[in-house]
Design a protein that fits this description.
Chain lengths: 436, 155
């Protein structure tokens, strides 16, 4: 059997590894536009201040492909998929046939339209980071468009490189996709302390400069001078290949719980795919690393005939801001909050230097979102309650007291035993049979 | 003796005395001195890789303890953005602390809450490492009643 994977990152790489682990005889070819060793995309911002080098952000060893007998074609772009012929066409006009195809083409940064000036960058690849690092050297000021996770990571990296940084944020608080305004206040206070400026509720009117960026104009009338702009206004799934081949897409390539597209032997995984969100009860774009990896694995397992389904899943993010750890899961974004949710926030006074906050959103006796700042221990236990949609009425008081761990939630898990098939949970439940 | 297989340390709640010997032994085993009298004085106090807490089921109160189960499909491995957390061929989940940047992704997903943050200048996570420096497991050896047992599953 021959499996071709387009894309060599979280999703593609995991798919390849899983296929080879489960079936050595399966021939696996990974194709990628990027010709680089297997690095972690989440860490590319660290290359900008020179704090880390490529070898410090490798996700797998360089000989990963050879060791696992995975064939590669790097530096090549797939231009089209021909499902009727079971083949793809590369930029070199070469055609490659497959028995099964996995589209793991990821996403690209959204850039300002028809912008040709020098000094406007996206931040997604090693190449992007290297270009930014080189270009910013003799500049003193930078503007980041967008206050999301990538925008904040970019701003921090530029600041570490000693640049003045101003972040243009569309909404009235930062990281609004993943946290509400209460958490954002703490995060923003930290970022301001390290010298990052924010202009909130602003939108971009134009980038100015003859051939090179000189300044950014806002719709609200400001001119922000800068030598460099990073566009971090979100990412768009790379779905063109799929669309042209008649594969069903909405915002991304639509996949079911087994990562199948509407074409039998074509699967999709990662940021390019749109898959079910347990809490949102809809096909959703959750462009995050853990879900990309899981989709890569599940696609591979199904190709090998194992009936494998995606777990219950929703958005989740973890970010470190200096001393502060921040985790948010579920419907925790500014726009996700609504009146039907009960909101409970616990904080401690900031005299210890770091500020702690726990925020919980409940709906119909379920935990639908939480954010933790400072003490993040046992976050995964809360995440479990959320993903498995467990009725928490019996332990709600303990959760909102901020003192919880696995033993705290175990009684309500036992009530909902049917939702657990994983062997490790069965082990725990079985060990309690004698006493419960 | 340790076998080349997935390690699952199973807890027999009926035998537990709530003495916390397992927790202490774990912390000591992961200290620099490996000496119970010196360990707590060390800079960056060692964190036990094991939880002990109170379990209340149907009005009964019991002591409950657990550590990493080396899950079949570990969420911590799938969520690790650096490649520090991996699953070995034997099926055990191991963390390369040199590669770990302490981003918290694994803590965010571990359903058992058994990944801990090591406090200190450099931020990194710690978890049960199945006591690589010993022939047995510190927690099991320390348990006076045999409430902890290792189930090793061949893969
Ligand atoms: C700066 C930054 C920080 C991030 N931080 C976090 C974080 O902290 N936590 C988190 O969960 N997520 C984070 N993310 C998101 C995370 O990196 C993505 O979710 C993840 O990389 C998705 O993996 P993927 O395999 O789906 O796609 P991608 O990583 O986008 O990879 C796509 C692959 O497909 C290849 N490709 C695409 N089209 C073609 C074609 N036509 N022909 C050949 N090859 C092609 C590309 O070369 C690439 O190898 C971050 C992202 C960025 C940019």
């Amino acid at each position: 059997m021959k499996v071709v994977i387009i894309g060599n990152h979280a999703a593609g790489l995991t798919a390849a590894e899983t296929l080879k682990k489960l079936d050595q005889s399966c021939s696996v070819l990974v194709i990628s536009k990027e010709d680089v060793p297997p690095y972690s995309r989440c860490l590319v911002a660290d290359l900008i201040p020179g704090k880390k080098k490529i070898e410090d952000i490798l996700f797998k060893d360089e000989d990963f492909y050879r060791k696992n007998k995975i064939d590669t074609l790097f530096g090549r772009e797939a231009l089209s998929v021909q499902p009727d012929k079971n083949q793809i066409v590369l930029d070199t006009k070469q055609t490659i046939s497959y028995d099964h195809l996995i589209l793991a083409t990821g996403a690209t940064p959204v850039m300002p339209e028809s912008e040709t000036r020098q000094g406007v960058f996206g931040l997604r690849t090693i190449e992007d980071a290297a270009a930014i690092k080189k270009y910013v050297k003799d500049k003193t000021k930078a503007v980041v468009l967008g206050g999301g996770l990538v925008g904040i990571k970019a701003a921090l990296a530029l600041r570490q490189a000693g640049k003045e940084v101003c972040v243009l944020v569309g909404s009235n608080s930062i990281l609004s996709q993943i946290i509400g305004c209460e958490e954002a206040e703490i995060a923003e206070a930290y970022l301001k302390r390290v010298g990052i400026d924010f202009l909130k509720q602003r939108s971009l009117k134009a980038i100015v400069g003859k051939d090179k960026v000189k300044a950014v104009l806002t719709e609200q009338g400001e001119t922000v001078e800068c030598g460099l702009v990073i566009s971090a206004k979100g990412v768009a799934p790379r779905k063109k290949l799929a669309e042209a081949a008649g594969i069903e897409c909405e915002y991304g390539i639509l996949i079911d719980d087994r990562c199948r597209t509407n074409i039998e032997n074509i699967y999709a995984a990662g940021d390019t795919a749109q898959s079910r969100d347990t809490l949102r009860k809809a096909a959703w774009l959750n462009s995050i690393w853990p879900l990309a990896v899981e989709e890569g694995r599940v696609a591979a397992e199904n190709i090998l005939g194992r009936d494998s389904v995606l777990r219950q899943r929703t958005s989740m993010n973890s970010l470190v801001l200096g001393e502060l750890s921040l985790i948010s899961c579920g419907l925790s974004g500014l726009r996700d909050e609504n009146e039907q949710m009960e909101k409970i926030i616990i904080t401690d006074s900031p005299h210890t230097g770091t500020q702690h906050m726990k925020k919980f959103l409940f709906k119909d006796n379920r935990l639908v979102a939480f954010s933790l700042i400072g003490d993040i221990s046992h976050a995964g236990v809360l995440n479990l309650l959320l993903r498995k949609e467990i009725d928490i009425s019996a332990i709600k008081r303990k959760i909102i007291s901020g003192r919880y761990d696995f033993a705290t939630v175990l009684p309500v898990l036992l009530e909902d035993r049917g939702k657990f098939t994983e062997p490790e949970f069965i082990n725990v439940f079985d060990s309690l049979v004698k006493v419960t | 003796m340790k076998k080349q297989s997935t390690v699952r340390i199973i807890f027999n709640i009926a035998k537990c005395l709530s003495c916390r010997s397992c927790e202490l032994a774990c912390a000591v085993e992961h200290s620099r001195s490996k000496d119970p009298l010196k360990a707590h004085l060390e800079k960056d106090t060692p964190v036990p890789r094991r939880n002990i807490s109170l379990l209340e089921v149907k009005e009964k109160k019991m002591c409950f303890t657990l550590t990493c189960f080396n899950c079949d499909t570990p969420l911590c491995v799938e969520s690790c953005i650096t490649g520090a957390m991996t699953r070995t061929g034997e099926g055990n989940v191991v963390l390369n602390t040199d590669k770990c940047i302490g981003c918290g992704m694994c803590i965010m997903v571990c359903p058992f809450g058994v990944i801990k943050q090591q406090q200190g200048e450099i931020r990194y996570m710690v978890k049960c490492d199945m006591c690589p420096d010993r022939e047995d497991y510190a927690c099991i050896a320390a348990c006076p009643t045999g409430a902890l047992e290792c189930k090793e599953e061949e893969h």
